[in-house]
């Protein structure tokens, strides 16, 4: 390589470095602009807590070998100001940092990834950091000490500022080799290693330390060119290799990861469907444009290198907006206008800009970008106001949107599955089992199973007051229906928009609502006429019991090991004579509710059904916890004793 050519390479790298640094600075400024005032100091303090290890500061880990200290980290005035604000009792120490400043620096970089600093950032956004290290410098004891330090800081941020900060220890060599472990928690594991790296490159902000050298490469660089250029760096020259870490190039995504990535997004959609709609659509768009499109991170890098603006005439491209534009272009070309409308609604709701309200002091970059979108979509003010008032939506309207979201996710997954060969998938068999069982638990319909309500509105669906009504059907059976709010004086058509659930037993109605976070023991259940012998106290006791034994479950948090072992019953509740006349002193009616280790809950009826479960309840170790509930009456103890005699099993009576 000639001297002139080498000089040109160095000059190009230096120019790109300046543009990347400017973009990174803009992302930090955007993140701070969207943070509430009481959380802004935390943005500056969290890196500092990784840089030092002092007993008077959060994150202190005991021992002489505790690794801490951020590479290339310098104390800026805003950090000192934030420290004095958050720890006023230590102000004098912060005037002279020499005593606590690290002699060695063990952490190569602290890098944020995710929605922070984009239009998708909200007050609920997590702070997801990659703590990049060279693990060959650490022994096991040091790694444990660093992990403990990170856990202490996470807990402090949560307890004091209600901020979920997550620090992911990331070994630079493993990341370079696309090794991200197993699929658990926030890790995608073998399901989508390259997709995770692409997500990191698309959204990362270097908070402190070294930057990924990937940022300086042209967007269409192949592996050979990458290695050739990185080998030209020389210490002391700009750009200095000491400023960078090599996390590897990313030229193409692996189509073999698409299957695992798709089921991973379905799994994540159980908790965050608005985000997963956009990410699942991104996977489908990638599959459809496999031979023609670059990975989104490379497209972003190209725009950063070229200085392209974001929508709404806002300087600096936004990663989330760039992804969204790509999706809308694809689904518009294929004339899937129902999908386009859904994606627009999901983006607007997720961003939470409230454009129907006056801008005031809130006229930040996010509002400007979203206003540009809304103008482009041709939305009316009434349409915007309707979405801004989503907290006022009826239960039926919220559920209708939720069904559209999950219907799209399933259809998208099926379309992708039809084009992919399972045998070519890179996801490991173990990860496939875990993810597959989570999806089966959440989505599948099975006889007697209490189904999960596919929703993204856990808090919005909660009902402090509900009304239970009963009516006799032509076949002689009764139908029980639960309605949102006080509906004691409402009848007929006036009820149709407030109905939550109907079933042939009040037990099924109540348990479904408790399991799906619609009611809990704080909710007031009003009981209409013609519901004898069931009383409001019976319903309250049932709700309290259901909340203890069958609480709402986040399927994504079911322990990995439980999903890799055979399904077993963990709790069982026998509900005796709930709808029977209270004058009867013998077993007349029996419902059995049981929950499994895979997160499913079932309701079965009658002694024969219980007899069919005797082995799973009595002959396994550890034996499931079995309880009996009998409504209040003068014969309650006798009814319980009659039940025990007839079933010949061990059930503890709930007081």
Structure in words:
By secondary structure, this protein is α/β, with parallel strands linked by helices. It folds into 4 domains: 3-251, no CATH class; 303-443, no CATH class; 446-552, no CATH class; 555-655, no CATH class. It is 44% helix and 13% strand. It has 23 helices and 17 strands. The chain has helices at residues 3-34, 40-51, 77-86, 91-95, 140-161, 172-176, 193-203, 223-230, 258-269, 273-288, 296-306, 319-333, 337-351, 365-377, 381-388, 395-419, 429-443, 506-515, 536-549, 560-564, 607-611, 614-618, 636-647, and strands at residues 109-113, 127-133, 165-171, 183-184, 187-188, 205-209, 211-212, 244-245, 465-472, 478-484, 499-503, 524-527, 569-576, 590-596, 601-605, 625-629, 652-653. It has a 5-stranded mixed sheet. Helix 8 links the parallel strand 7 (211-212) and strand 8 (244-245).
How would you sum up the major sheet? Answer: 5 strands, mixed
In percent terms, what proportion of residues is strand?
5-15%
Q: How many distinct beta strands?
A: 17
Low-pLDDT windows of residues = 182-190
What general form does the structure show? globular
pLDDT averaged over residues:
88
DSSP summary: helix tally: 23
Strand order of the largest sheet: 15-14-13-16-17
Helix content: 40-55%
Radius of gyration: 29 Å
Number of structural domains: 4
Query: What is the structural class?
Result: alpha/beta
Distance between the termini: 84 Å
């Amino acid at each position: 390589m000639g001297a002139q050519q080498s000089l040109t390479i160095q000059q190009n790298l230096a120019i790109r470095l300046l543009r990347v640094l400017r973009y990174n600075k803009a992302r930090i400024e955007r993140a701070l602009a969207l943070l509430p005032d009481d959380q802004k100091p935390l943005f500056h303090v969290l890196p500092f807590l990784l840089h030092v290890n002092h007993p008077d500061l959060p994150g202190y880990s005991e021992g002489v070998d505790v690794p801490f200290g951020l590479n290339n980290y310098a104390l800026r005035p805003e950090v000192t100001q934030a420290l004095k604000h958050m720890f006023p009792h230590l102000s004098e120490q912060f005037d002279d940092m020499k005593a606590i400043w690290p002699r060695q620096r063990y952490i190569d970089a602290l890098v944020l990834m995710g929605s922070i600093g984009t239009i998708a950032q909200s007050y609920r956004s997590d702070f997801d950091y990659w703590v990049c290290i060279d693990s060959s410098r650490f022994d096991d004891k040091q790694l444990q000490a660093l992990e403990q330090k990170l856990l202490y800081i996470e807990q402090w941020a949560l307890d004091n500022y209600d901020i979920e900060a997550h620090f992911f220890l990331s070994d630079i060599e493993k990341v370079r080799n696309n090794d991200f472990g197993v699929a658990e928690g926030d890790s995608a594991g073998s399901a989508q290693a390259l997709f995770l790296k692409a997500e990191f490159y698309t959204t990362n902000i270097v908070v402190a330390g070294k930057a990924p050298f990937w940022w300086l490469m042209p967007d269409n660089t192949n592996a050979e060119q990458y290695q050739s250029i990185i080998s030209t760096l020389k210490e002391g020259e700009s750009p200095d290799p000491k400023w960078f870490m090599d996390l590897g190039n990313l030229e193409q995504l692996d189509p073999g990861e698409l299957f695992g990535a798709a089921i991973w997004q379905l799994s994540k959609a159980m908790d965050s469907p608005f985000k997963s709609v956009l990410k699942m659509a991104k996977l489908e768009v990638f599959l459809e444009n496999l031979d023609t499109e670059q990975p989104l991170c490379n497209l972003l890098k190209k725009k950063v290198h070229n200085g392209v603006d974001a929508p709404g005439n806002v300087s600096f491209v936004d990663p989330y907006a760039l992804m969204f534009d790509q999706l809308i272009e694809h689904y518009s070309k294929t004339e899937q206008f129902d999908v386009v409308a859904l994606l627009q609604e999901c983006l607007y709701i997720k961003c939470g800009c409230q454009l129907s309200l006056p801008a005031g002091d809130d006229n930040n970059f996010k509002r400007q970008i979203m206003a540009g979108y809304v103008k482009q979509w041709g939305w009316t003010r009434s349409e915007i106001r309707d979405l801004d008032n989503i907290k006022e939506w009826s239960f039926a309207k919220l559920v209708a949107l939720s069904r559209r979201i999950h219907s799209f996710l399933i259809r998208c997954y099926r379309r992708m599955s039809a084009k992919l060969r399972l045998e070519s998938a890179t996801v490991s068999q173990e990860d496939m089992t875990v993810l597959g069982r989570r999806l089966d638990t959440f989505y599948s319909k099975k006889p007697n199973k209490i189904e999960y309500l596919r929703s993204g509105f856990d808090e919005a669906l909660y009902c402090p007051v509900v009304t239970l009504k009963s009516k006799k059907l032509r076949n002689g059976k009764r139908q029980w229906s639960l309605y949102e709010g006080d509906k004691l004086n409402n009848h007929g058509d006036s009820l149709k928009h407030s109905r939550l659930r109907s079933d042939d037993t009040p037990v099924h109605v109540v348990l479904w609502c408790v399991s799906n976070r619609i009611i809990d023991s704080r909710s007031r259940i009003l009981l209409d006429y013609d519901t004898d012998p069931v009383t409001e106290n019976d319903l309250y006791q049932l709700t309290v019991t259901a909340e203890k034994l069958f609480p709402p479950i986040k399927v994504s948090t079911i322990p990995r090991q439980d999903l890799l072992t055979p399904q077993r019953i963990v709790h069982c509740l026998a509900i005796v004579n709930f709808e029977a006349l209270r004058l009867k002193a013998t077993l007349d009616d029996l419902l059995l509710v049981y929950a499994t280790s895979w997160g499913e809950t079932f309701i079965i009826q009658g002694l024969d059904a219980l007899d069919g479960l005797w082995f799973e309840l009595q002959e396994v170790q550890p034996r499931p916890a079995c309880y009996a509930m009998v409504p209040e009456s003068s014969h309650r103890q006798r009814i319980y004793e009659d039940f025990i005699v007839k079933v010949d099993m061990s059930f503890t009576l709930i007081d």
